[in-house]
Write a structure and sequence with these properties.
The protein has 142 residues and is α+β, with helices and mostly antiparallel strands. Helix content is 30%, strand content 27%. The protein has three helices and six strands. The strands form three sheets. Strands 1-2 form a two-stranded antiparallel ribbon. The longest helix is centred in the first third of the chain and has 17 residues. The model has no long low-confidence stretch (mean pLDDT 78).
């Protein structure tokens, strides 16, 4: 069960005097196609084919000003625990993710996605133990 605010119909507006912002905002699918995809997902869940589907669409926009200046403005609008800004020679990536994909611990890199799977055990008992370990990790801070 959940309680949600009404969805935003447009990307948040930035003040005219802002050093950065976005324009030409669009998605890679139409509203009609999006609705058809969601209906298909609901049908698969109702049929028991799956219990979860991660559905993603692409947002396209033009950055006004410097993308690095846009980053903190977006982070104020959507605060998340694991934000990232990556600038390469060709493009910039702004990630506002609630999940930590990678973390470096010493000489190791560990992945910790929220949505994903836990390895199956070789027996039912091993599966039950793995489930308990998973639940214990969820309750650990940080």
């Amino acid at each position: 069960m959940g309680i949600y605010s009404l969805p935003r119909r447009a990307f948040p507006a930035f003040p005219d005097n802002s050093a950065s912002g976005v324009c030409n905002f669009s998605t890679n699918v139409s509203r009609e196609t999006y609705g058809a995809h969601i209906e298909a997902i609901r049908n698969h869940i109702a049929a028991g084919d799956v219990y979860q589907i991660t559905y993603c669409i692409k947002f396209r926009f033009t950055v006004k000003g410097d993308s690095l200046a846009l980053y903190p403005a977006l982070l104020r609008i959507q605060p998340v625990p694991y934000p990232a800004f990556i600038r390469t020679g060709d493009y910039s990536i702004i990630s506002l993710s609630p999940e930590r994909f990678l973390v470096k611990r010493g000489s190791r890199v560990v992945t910790e996605p929220m949505k994903g799977t836990w390895p199956r055990g070789k027996t039912l008992v091993a599966d039950l133990i793995a489930r308990q370990r998973f639940l214990a990790r969820l309750q650990k801070p940080g």
